[in-house]
Structure formats: structure tokens, C-alpha cells
Amino acid sequence: MNTKLFAVTGNPVLHSLSPVLMSVSDSFNYFRLCAETAEEAIKTFKQLDFKGLNVTAPFKKDVIKYLDCLSENAKKAEAVNCIFYSSDNKLCGDNTDIKGVELTLKLYPEFLQQKKMLVIGSGGATPAVIIAGKNLGLEVTVTARNINALEALKERFNINIKELKNIENFINDFAVIVQALPSGVKVFEPELLTKDHVVLDANYKDSIFETPAKKIGFKFLSGKNWLVNQAVPSYENFTGGKIAPEKMYEALKNYKFDFQGRIALTGFMGVGKTTSGKELAKLTGYKFIDSDDEIEKNEGMKISEIFSKKGEDYFRKIETEFLKTLSKEKNIILSCGGGTVKNEENRKILRENFLNLWLYAPVEYCLDGLDISNRPLLQCENPVEKAREMFLSRVPFYADAAYAVVNVENLNREKIAEKIYGQISKTFKI
Predict the structure, then answer these.
(1) Do residues 80 and 144 both lie within one domain?
(2) Coil, strand, or helix at residue 117?
(3) 411 and 274, same structural domain?
(4) Model pLDDT for residues 303-349, shown as the tens digit of each residue
(5) pTM of the model
(6) Which of 44, 57, 136, 390 has the most crowded Cβ, counting Cβ within 10 A?
(7) Does any domain span residue 50?
């Protein structure tokens, strides 16, 4: 079982495809870290002893103050998307978005020889594109509607700027064009382009350039190219090793996640899976199910009795069968027992059939106010130490099964439910 943990964080973050790209490695667990602030993300990172963290909006600037050192690209961009430990155990920040643009544009080196690049848009992705262009020796021009933003970029990076309203008059002056605008936004007709252009669209869903490129013959680079090519140097920062981009492209191609309203809550005993799960069910309108309660009903005895009379192996078997019966249900909130993830088959069922959220809090928080009389594994001389030992042994299991982790420390059941609902509603529109 892998004990090295890595994640991607942002708000929201459940949409991130970084775990798909990093799944090409079987040497560590990589999942999403839901957080409301950069401070919370870094706190969870350190509490769970993560070895690396990718960072997306809106935390790329905010995380910098928690780091010991920055790469040259991160300093130039004043933004970080990759956090890792150096050989001397310093917490370092890099901006691999820049390298991602460079690697992507180098796929068509013949266009770079003309030394001119146009960037469309002045938002959060633009600085990385500008720096990448300059690193490649290109003369960079940025066009956008926001004149104030353009002026700020000109002053900061010493670039050329042009007003967007005149784009039809100068679009053909540039062989390399990068559009850094939201999905579906069209500021010029793609039919203005020719076979003498290469276009990189930062958006990796339904680009307006993909179909015209096939018809007209200009070269098209998807946001997926950028996505993979920024992940490659992140992987290298994390592991010190190399990875073939083709493996990540293949992972993206084969990835499927069909959200069917099946949400599972895993985590240590006392973390609030049941209480917050009931509140989450109210917010979503989904049916709430507590696995331990249902098993007790089916068996006609308490969990502690099942353990003492029939043993833990028996309990885990019926737990697995119960999970299987729920794996085709829709619109449910399932609160899993604290040890559900110990079983490999259980973890596989959770990964493949549920949006599985690992609720995390320190052991001391989980045990505060918890009645351990019905907790057979804590019937010992030092239950706190035993609980800490149990938790640490289960961390790799929680991570292996998790779609995402949510830090719920110091939150009541309503706040936990609201935090979870805030994340899932932004991504899955429920």
C-alpha cells in the first residue's frame, strides 16, 4: 500500500483532471484536496504529511507566503501551481504552467521561427503564457477588452498591447496565437486564420478552433496539450523521475466518471460522517444511508456484538456485500464505517461507483465527545493511543479510495455539510 500522498487543491477542485494524469504512477496516491483558503490547504498538506501539491485557482498567489523558496518561473509569474520538498527538505514552489506552454508550442517549432506571438485575454492564465513566450524568444503582444489590465501587463512584462476591438486588422500578423479566454468565448472568426497559423486554446473542452482547424488547415493545440505538458514537470518535481506524456494522454482518453448522485463519506470514527451526512442529504434531497446502522438492522445485533461473536473478517464480508448492493443506486449519501476502507474490494467499489469524500480531522478532534463503548477496537487500556495508531495505519487506505479529501476540523455538522455541498454543487450542478 502506497504511503506517499499527493493532491491538487483549489476552490472549486472536484473538476480537476490532475488525479487522472497522475494516475499513471502506481508509486503514490494522488487525489483532490477541497479547501476554502490557501491557509487551510497548506495546513491539511502538513497535517497529512503530503509530499507534493498542485495548486489551481484561486490559491496560486496566496500559497507563496507559506513556502521556503521559489523557482525562477514562479518568481516571474508571482504564482505557484506546484509545491514539493527539495532535497534539503525545504518547501518549494514552481510554476509549471509556463513550462507547459513552452512544451506545447514546441510541438510546432516551425511557427516559433517567426518570433511573434499574440495572446488573447488578460486573465489569470495570461502571465504564464507571456513568460513562456519570452522564454522561447518570442515578441509577445497581448490583446483584451480590459484596457487597465493591458496597461498593467505592459508595465509588468514590457510587452506590446493592442485593443481587442481591432483584432481583425492584426490577427494575421502573428503566426502563433494563444487564446486564454473562458470556454465558448469567440472574439474573432476562426475563418480568418490560414495554414500559416498555430493556435493554442487554453480551454480543454469544446474549443471553437478544433473544427475550423480541420477544415482550413491551421494547426490547433488543445488545452489538453497544455494540461499534460504542465503535469509532466510537476511529476518530475514530485518524484525526481521522468514520465512519458503519452501515458498521460492515454489516461485522459480512457477516463470516465459518470456522476450518478452516489456520494460516499469515509473517514475515521467520530469525524462526523453520519451527522453531517444527514445534513447533506437535506441540502441535496438525496436519501441518507448509514452502513453500520443498516448492517446492525440486517444482522439483528450491534457492531460490537458482530465483532465479538463472528469476528472482524465476517463483518468486512457483509460490509462488502452491502456496498455492492448500493453501487447501482442513485441519489444517495452513504456514511461508511470507519474501517470500511481497510478492505481492498471495498476501496475499489468506492473508487469506481461513488464520489467518495474522505472527511479528515485530527484524531483528538474525532475522539472528543465520542462514546467508545460501542467501538470494539478501542476497548483497550489506552484508547487514544490506539486510535492514533489505527488512524495512521488507515491513512493510505483512505487516500487510495478517495476522490477528494475535506478537512472538517472544528466544523459542526451543518458547516461540514455546507462545505461539501458548496464543492459538489459547483462541479456537478446539484
Answers:
(1) no
(2) strand
(3) yes
(4) 888 988 999 889 999 999 999 999 989 999 999 998 899 999 999 99
(5) 0.92
(6) 44
(7) yes
